[in-house]
Amino acid sequence: VRAGVIYSPPQNYPLYIRSIPTENELKFHYTVHTSLDVVDEKISAMGKALVDQRELYLGLLYPTEDYKVYGYVTNSRVKFVMVVDSSNTALRDNEIRSMFRKLHNSYTDIMCNPFYNPGDRIHSRAFDNMVNSMMMQVC
Amino acid sequence: MEQGPVGGSAAAASSAATTGTGSGGLLLPLSESEQQRYSELFSRCCPTPEAAAGGSSVGELFRASQLPPDTLHQITEVCGAKRVGYFGPAQFYIALKLIAAAQSGFPVRIESIKNELPLPRFIALKNDSEVRYGTPAELHGVKFQVPHATLEKNSYKRTDEGDKQETKSPPMSPICSPPASPSTYQRIPLSYGYGKSRSGLEQQHGAPYEVRHSTHQQDGTSSGNYGAKPALGCSTLNRSLSVEREQQDSSTHYSDDPWRITEEQRDYYVNQFRSLQPDLNSFISGSVAKNFFTKSKLPIPELSHIWELSDVDCDGALTLPEFCAAFHLVVARKNGYQLPETLPETLLPEYLQAASLKPLHDCALFDSYSETLPGSQQTRDFSRTEKTSAEEVPDKSALLQDGKKDDKQALKVSTSLKTIPKEFQHLTVKTAAQESNALKARPRSRSYSSTSIEDAMKKGEEPPTPPPRPQKSHSRASSLDLNKIFQQNTQ
């Protein structure tokens, strides 16, 4: 049971939302949206050291009783947020990292497409396939 | 002669003709008898009035006119069917008129059909009660517009090589018009051949489309043949691309594969590429390509998908094989084909490069980067070396072990391109494709977590030639915007 969202700067509107299963979607949207605050907080916390090494992977944003939220931000301030079921303890940190990395890679592929305007919602089929396969893997 | 249905059939013909995608065209006056005769022939050749004529039945009809094959070729060309790729009513009528002209001894030109002409004569047609018609009466008649192909991209030609072969499978595919096709015509392959020998039967199926094959037996002159053919050949095609005929090599046997690029198409694409980018070894940047493909008037999401399919190394630029693939997909889409989910094998860059046997990759590749993405050189280098050869498979295994090294790239550069027989290329292409996909994943396996702004800045200042050592922290997209962010932060 997971959901993933990509938010874009600076207004933080979602570029891409996908959740499995598709019911309770609204709850995931809400969760992800509120977690943006945590993301921003983390970014600004690193703000002083921005020039130096900055972790793209933000790690566990906050755990709730039901699920955990992970965050990832790119250098261009595009935020990836992922919600994972708490019961899914088999999911280790490394795997989350690799998933974010894959997301980031696919996102850059989309950016390479000259027909894609940054800020548009993402409709790429390749991206969909990648996200689906990733989520299937975990569930 | 029946006068009654002339008006109705004439109206049908004119309406069908004008629904074509044409902005301008010829006005072709037909007399009454001509009109009636033509519409009768047309309706015999195609099952529904609004569709275009079945290629094979058209072929038989033309052959029945007893004109030499060259003349028939010429007629096909002049009537515009070759250009638009199918026999719509307009093309068919013009062709008939040209046949009449040729039979009367006039040259095959558009001008000759503007005159009064006797009706074309077709020998031994099944339903033909009258073999010959007398001269027509007046010139009054229905004028209808001949839709010409508007889009330049649709105007591909067929290679009518003597050794071309076509095959047909006995079960006919049902008639189904392409869903998003801009015109109401069904696309019929120009699958007739004039006196060519055909052999064999081959069957293939593609995933999103049905390929129709036709077997034409060695054409005997018996009327029984002609009688049988219209019945057999009148079914129209589902999705076969009308100009997708590959030349028959001695070693390989291509059938109607819409995702296969013919020689003529390839030449056309290469010329288009040249118009955008004179250096064939270099590539077209994304914005240039975007402007170019936007002219095709396909919707942006589809163009986006086409780009996704064809830009295999995802570098935001199109090399020649990528461009050919993209162009081909655009052409296919404009002809009503659904875009595939993944790039067909025959459109892979490695395959196209191997097929073209052109020495596309050498030092020029590394020197001719367009510096739109300064940070992307790394992955671009890598993908260039990936793409550089279907032939250099052994080098690829070295690639796997060594990672990105400059000396290895130098090795590639110095390796000359070997032309390998096509069968081997087929094999190497497959493995190369798999390897390149695996290889593509490799540069991504580096951790992005330590990307820093200085690294990206360093990247941006590097010269176009391959940098000595890829920095572990490099990430393509981050370096795109880092400069901007860095400037913002320093303000």
UniProtKB/TrEMBL annotation, chain A:
One Gene Ontology biological process: endoplasmic reticulum to Golgi vesicle-mediated transport
Coiled coil region boundaries: none
Superkingdom per UniProt: Eukaryota
InterPro entries associated with the record: Longin-like_dom_sf, Sedlin, TRAPPC, TRAPPC2L
Keyword Transmembrane attached: no
CDD domains: TRAPPC2L (cd14854)
GO CC terms of this entry: endoplasmic reticulum; Golgi apparatus; perinuclear region of cytoplasm; TRAPP complex
UniProt-listed Gene3D superfamilies: 3.30.450.70
Compartments where found: Cytoplasm, Perinuclear region; Endoplasmic reticulum; Golgi apparatus, cis-Golgi network; Golgi apparatus
UniProtKB keywords: Cytoplasm, Endoplasmic reticulum, ER-Golgi transport, Golgi apparatus, Transport
Family indicated by similarity: Belongs to the TRAPP small subunits family. Sedlin subfamily.
PANTHER family: TRAFFICKING PROTEIN PARTICLE COMPLEX SUBUNIT 2
Subunit comment: Part of the multisubunit transport protein particle (TRAPP) complex.
Protein name: Trafficking protein particle complex subunit
Species whose genome carries this gene: Brachypteracias leptosomus
From TrEMBL, chain B:
Entry's Gene Ontology BP terms: endocytosis; endosomal transport
Ranges of Pro residues composition bias in the record: 171-181
Domain EF-hand: 298-333
InterPro entries named among the record's database cross-references: EF-hand-dom_pair, EF_Hand_1_Ca_BS, EF_hand_dom, EH_dom
Composition skew (Basic and acidic residues), residue ranges: 150-167, 381-395
GO molecular function: calcium ion binding
Domain EH: 34-118, 265-350
Record's keyword terms, sorted: Calcium, Coiled coil, Metal-binding, Phosphoprotein, Repeat
Sequence ranges of Low complexity compositional bias: 8-20
SUPFAM superfamilies listed in its UniProt record: EF-hand
Biased composition (Polar residues): 476-491
Pfam families from the UniProt entry: EH (PF12763)
Name recorded for this polypeptide: REPS2 protein
Source species taxonomy: Eukaryota, Metazoa, Chordata, Craniata, Vertebrata
Name of the gene: Reps2
